[in-house]
Design goal:
23% helix, Aminopeptidase, globular, 13 strands, 271 residues, alpha/beta, 2 domains, three-stranded antiparallel beta sheet
């Protein structure tokens, strides 16, 4: 794990803001955004201490999602764990504990950046609205052990995995995040961000191939065939839903998630 602390020195103030890239080693967009900021960004303008973290360096070097276990399923980790990622999850948690934290990921399901979170608060809604995002998926109660289950943690899915566009999106989100957390000067530029309450997973049948016929974050009416298996079986919506992370190739066991669109995120959070 690589940690860079930027901002004023000699004040004794501990960082209360952090950003993390490289939670998955095959999703380098956040690492590229952090390295770009350190190399050519407005580092000298940072007004409060910020931790910029590259998490799973071993997986990044290997170009794989993880080495021994999925880091994003193992929080808050175990310092005596049997796997590299169990121990790393604990080390990362110690670095970001007490910090508002933005994590970076990428997908194979959607080109545009969107947010993910759990346990929505007005503060998390403020961050989501300050980032250049149209959508934010809320996984409250559906997942555990993930970064979004940590206090004050939100994620950006910055775009298509491995693309230059995802790295550029991550950089834009990093700058906006540092502004909304008062780490960089300048007022945030809030955008309307729709909130989606993720309600259930869509599992894959082992050994089955799929074709997806609908777009993420676009309403699928009840009765619509949203995917087809390789043998021609149709998967049909029992009720209206909005797809999240729906992809034929994104995950071995998971096709995606169903969600309900609940409104503008600031209204849902009671801002």
């Amino acid at each position: 794990m690589r940690v860079a602390t930027v901002g004023p020195e000699g004040t004794g103030e501990q960082p209360a803001v952090a950003a993390v890239g490289g939670i998955h080693g095959d999703e380098p967009c956040g690492v590229r955004a952090i390295d770009r900021f350190l190399a050519e960004g407005p580092v000298d303008a940072v007004e409060r201490p910020v931790r910029l973290i590259v998490a799973n360096e071993r997986a990044l070097d290997a170009g794989t999602r993880y080495v021994e276990g999925d880091l994003n399923r193992l929080f808050p980790g175990d310092p005596d764990g049997d796997t590299h990622e169990e121990r790393l999850a604990h080390e990362l948690w110690q670095e970001i504990r007490g910090c508002k934290t933005l994590g970076f990921h990428a997908t194979v399901s959607f080109d545009d950046p969107f947010g993910t979170l759990a346990d929505l608060t007005p503060g998390k809604a403020e961050i989501m609205r300050a980032l250049p995002l149209d959508h934010a998926a809320d996984f409250t109660g559906l997942v555990s052990g993930r970064s979004v289950n940590l206090p004050e943690f939100v994620n950006v899915e910055a775009g298509f995995q491995g693309s230059d566009a995802a790295a550029d999106n991550a950089y834009d989100c990093l700058l906006a995040y540092l502004r909304v957390t008062d780490a960089l000067p300048g007022d945030p530029d809030p955008t309307p961000t729709a909130h989606y309450r993720v309600r259930e997973t869509i599992e894959k049948e082992p050994g089955t191939t799929y074709r997806v016929h609908v777009e993420n974050f676009e309403r699928v009416p009840a009765g619509t065939a949203y995917a087809t298996t390789g043998t021609g079986e149709e998967l049909t919506a029992d009720a209206d839903f909005w797809p999240v992370l729906l992809s034929a190739s994104g995950h071995d066991a998971l096709l995606g998630y169903t969600a309900d669109r609940t409104g503008e995120i600031g209204d849902v959070a009671g801002e």
